[in-house]
């Protein structure tokens, strides 16, 4: 089994206490792994550690067996869309993607390709400030995939999406994984995650659960949400 991302006893201190402690799991090719946990559980810290934005206090987080910061042309391997990666509101969606395309060193045609993929072709000439939250989410995903990466790391991608957008995201991620890609996605939307994840990691500073969606749902009598509360309760 090819492993695209791996946390190996990853720990990160923020201030005087650990935001994440001793986190170990893998994201294999072809799989969608959902990272869930309450506010402040350390999900963003883990994703930032994986994508080179934070350095581990101990342990490691690697992509394709390497530290993200040592990857050559990282955008062609890992697509990242994290909370707080704001897009300049005065740019048009197309211009934003052209900048990403230049930075990624991919062909100019990739801009049209990703606009089409995220269903924003008709809105490419509009300024980002006039985009809805859902359109901004799609544009963030478009920027993440401009280098045709194999691994996607997404923080709360369903935020702000309407039911159509959620359906679109679901089939987009499914297609991405079935063509050999992998996805690590953090989400608070458990019923949504139940529809898309193959594997689930529950984090509350420490990892409380790691396993297949099926096993997670079995803990909750067929519901991921019930399993989540049961596992959190058990850890108190
Ligand atoms: N820049 C920072 N400096 C110091 N502590 C931080 C910083 N960012 C986050 N923390 C702390 O690290 C812990 C984990 O936060 P993190 O944002 O990773 O959690 P999260 O699971 O992503 O939360 P949420 O679901 O609310 O987005 C929290 O206790 C938070 O207060």
UniProtKB/TrEMBL annotation:
It holds the Pfam family ABC_tran. Gene3D superfamilies: P-loop containing nucleotide triphosphate hydrolases (3.40.50.300). PROSITE patterns: ABC_TRANSPORTER_1 (PS00211), ABC_TRANSPORTER_2 (PS50893). Residues 5-230 form the ABC transporter domain. Keywords: ATP-binding, Nucleotide-binding, Transport. GO terms for molecular function: ATP binding. Belongs to the ABC transporter superfamily. This is ABC transporter ATP-binding protein. It comes from Arthrobacter methylotrophus.
